[in-house]
Write a structure and sequence with these properties.
Layout (H helix, E strand, L loop, with lengths): L1 E6 L8 E6 H9 L5 E3 L2 E3 L16 H12 L6 H8 L6 H16 L3 E3 L5 E3 L2
Helix pairs in contact: 3-4
Length: about 120
């Protein structure tokens, strides 16, 4: 089966047509996320956790965060992880990016956030 992708450019430009085979569609769907750009800024793409997926698929900073979480005994707050990573948690501008990364790991299924705002490893 073949897929057709139609791209129309308005104005004096011609209609462009690209034919994409099933093999290419499958390759694109199974490709691992690559670093991308948003608004001209480089961003790290954090994959959603799937069964059997290793932590090594995460960027190194996120691997360090998960290691700090594992070392903590039980649920923890972002400040505790920051202390474990050597971040000056008394400065809000340094703590908030860490909190954002923790929430991103929750959204992607790597961590779990409890109702009281503490984080824990997802089993």
């Amino acid at each position: 089966m073949e897929h057709w992708l139609f791209v129309q450019v308005r104005g004096e430009h011609q209609l462009e047509v690209e034919r994409v085979s099933d093999q290419l569609v499958d390759e694109r769907a199974s490709a691992a996320p690559l670093p991308g750009q948003v608004g001209g800024q480089a961003v790290m793409l954090i994959p959603h956790r799937e069964p059997g997926m290793e932590e090594t698929t995460l960027p190194r900073d996120y691997q360090r965060i998960l290691a700090a979480v594992r070392e903590a005994a039980g649920p923890f707050k972002a400040r505790q992880v920051g202390d474990g990573l050597g971040i000056d948690v008394s400065v809000r501008a340094k703590l908030e990016p860490l909190r954002g990364r923790l929430v991103r790991l929750v959204d992607r299924g790597w961590l779990r956030k409890l109702p009281d705002g503490r984080f824990t490893i997802r089993l």
